[in-house]
Structure formats: C-alpha cells, structure tokens
Write a structure and sequence with these properties.
Elements: E1 4-8, H1 15-27, E2 33-37, H2 51-56, E3 62-66, E4 71-75, H3 87-91, E5 101-105, E6 114-118, E7 134-139, H4 142-145, E8 153-155, H5 159-170, E9 188-191, E10 195-198, E11 204-206, E12 210-219, E13 222-228, E14 237-238, E15 241-243, H6 250-262, E16 270-281, E17 284-297, E18 309-316, H7 328-342
Helix pairs in contact: 1-5
C-alpha cells in the first residue's frame, strides 16, 4: 500500500487551502500524489444533458469517462442504508502502482498517520490528545501551541516547512543527510523514484525492486489464505510467501517460505505471473516484484500457521473479497484465478 498521511481538523480550519499549497511543493520533489477527500454532501460533478450524465443516470453502477488527458471513474451507491465510506474502501479504488504518496482530507476518526490543523481563534477542541495517530500539529499560533503540545509543531502559514516534514517522514527529503558508502561524505541525495547519488564522488545506488514469491495453494474451488500477524497489513489477508533471500532462486524461496509459514513441503508448483507491489515496513518503502506460483492439490494437507502467519483458512474463490487483502499483488493474483475459473 502507498504511504498515506492525513490532515485532520474541523470545518473551516483550512485543510483544503493547505493541501492546495502543499501538493505543488511535493510534486517538485518528483512525488506522484494521490488524494482522498471525504465529503458529507451529495456531489455530482457531471453536467445534466451531457452524454456521460445521461448514461450514468440510465442505471450504470460504474462509469469510466476516458479522455487522452484524464480518466473519471464514477461509482454509484443507491442503498439508502449505506454507511459513510471507510478509508480502506476508498484507498482500494486508487491505482497504487502510479503513486508515491496519498494525501487524505477527512476521515479524522480512522487509524492512520495524520497532521492536525488547529486554529485557536475558532474555539474548537484539540484532537491530538485523543488520537495517538496524529504525528504533528500545525497551527497559526505557534507560541501558544508550545505550551501544551509535545508533538512536532509546524507553522500553518509556512507550507514549505510542512512539506519538508512530510518528506522527512517519508524518508525521501533531499535535505536529509545520507552518508555515502563510497566516500563517507554526508552528500548522498535521493532522486525519486529509486536513485541515490553522491554529489561528492558521483557514487550512484539504484534502489531496485526486490524479488518475492506468492503461493496460490488450491484444492478444488478453494484457495488457502493466511491472516497476517505482523505489520504491514496486520490482521488482513494475504497469500503465503515472502522475500527471496540472497543466492536463492524463486523456487528455493517458495519452498523455504511455505515450510517456514505452513510446515508445507512443495512438490509441484507452476509459475503463473508476476505483479509489482509496495511493501512498507518500519517507515521504509520496498518496491517488490511478486512472482505468483500455483500449487494444485488432490487432497488437503495438515498445515500449521507459523512465523508471521496468525491463522490459515480455505476459502472458495468465488467468496473471496479482494479488499480484505493487504497487498495489491495478492489481489491481482487471486483475480487472475477467479477469471480463469469463470471461463
């Protein structure tokens, strides 16, 4: 999942105004920015009488309006009892392969990293004292804030300072000191999306994608899924597998991972496809290439959930909800199996 950071504050605090200033500053650093904004209003950006409006209102559940420079995807939800959208649901609708950072406006009660925006003159209560996921506090009254807030305090009127904080949080700030492993000078600068260059000795490091393996272990119309016991994606579903170790082939990595996680011995695994993925662990983002192997069984073996697997279960392919999975690569792999089963 792409790193996300939110902006929490009451209506009128200036969230949209701040984001409007922040986005160009982050874009200047080469970051590809996504945005999720929550609204309580019934918004229809389409114009009555336009072809897309007419086709949507004819009854389409989803409509994609495609042009050379822009795609607009509409989802229609007609259930009057439907709850307000969850952030995870909205994030799942973005193409994370095309993003480096997602900014979120709203969803202040959900658990994800946020910056609080507070204007004392508005008389609204503070949020950070009841939300451990708020990582910084931005305000137009810095002196007053220092009397009560122990979080990093940022000047609401200095968007560059806020952008620098976000870049440092991401670990991609060009002003952050990185020491060159070749000459030892503090002159190693990150150039998104993957290159570190030393301004002193011209040393260059390419932070390329890491190889990983996924296993689709299938029995009849069921597939084995695992619940993750660790971050990232703790408590969410995943396919068994993991990273390829140095000097290891894909097949060797698959055999090792399945033994470590399931106490399962691989006899016949068929390579099927590969998918790009993003794995963020302890604030470090790893771009991976996840290779997908399918293992077809004649009978269900006795398996044990071990290592970073909390539990395992067999689920019918047709009953799987892709949004319950932690990573896009697993979603794509399972969708491939679903498509094949439907033919």
């Amino acid at each position: 999942m792409t790193p996300i950071i939110g902006f929490a504050g009451y209506s009128g605090s200036g969230k949209t105004t701040l984001l409007e200033k922040l986005i160009p500053l982050l874009k200047q650093q080469g970051l590809r920015i996504g945005l999720v904004k929550h609204s309580h209003h019934n918004i229809d950006p389409d114009k009555p009488g336009k072809d897309s409006y007419r086709l949507r209102h004819a009854g389409c559940d989803q409509t994609l309006l495609a042009t050379k420079s822009r795609h607009m995807l509409y989802f229609e939800y007609t259930d009057l009892k439907r709850d307000e959208p969850a952030l995870a649901e909205c994030l799942a609708q973005l193409d994370h392969n095309q993003l480096d950072l997602v900014l979120v406006e709203g969803f202040r009660d959900e658990t994800f990293p946020k910056i609080e925006i507070h204007r004392p003159a508005y008389g609204k209560p503070l949020l950070y004292s009841n939300d451990e996921h708020i990582i910084a506090f931005t305000t137009d009254e810095i002196v007053q804030a220092k009397q009560h807030c122990k979080l990093p305090i940022l000047d609401l009127n200095q968007p560059q300072d806020i952008a620098d904080f976000i870049l440092t949080w991401l670990g991609t700030s060009k002003t952050k000191q990185h020491y060159c492993p070749s000459c030892g000078e503090a002159s190693l600068a990150f150039q998104p999306p993957k290159v570190f260059c030393c301004d002193t000795c011209d040393f260059t490091y390419f932070h390329n994608a890491a190889a990983a393996v996924l296993a689709g272990i299938c029995y009849k119309d069921e597939i084995l899924v695992a619940t993750r016991s660790r971050e990232p994606g703790k408590g969410m579903l995943d396919l068994p597998g993991g990273f390829v170790d140095p000097d290891e082939s894909l097949e060797q990595a698959l055999a090792r991972e399945l033994q470590e996680e399931l106490d399962f011995i691989v006899h016949d695994a068929k390579y099927t496809a590969s998918y790009p993925n993003t794995y963020r662990y302890k604030n470090i983002e790893y771009k991976t290439c996840d290779t997908f192997f399918v293992i077809t069984l004649d009978e269900k073996p006795a398996l044990k959930a071990r290592d970073d697997v909390e539990k395992i279960e067999w689920i019918r392919l047709q009953d799987i909800e892709l949004n319950n999975f932690a990573f896009n690569s697993a979603k794509q792999a399972i969708q491939r199996l679903k498509d094949q089963a439907s033919k």
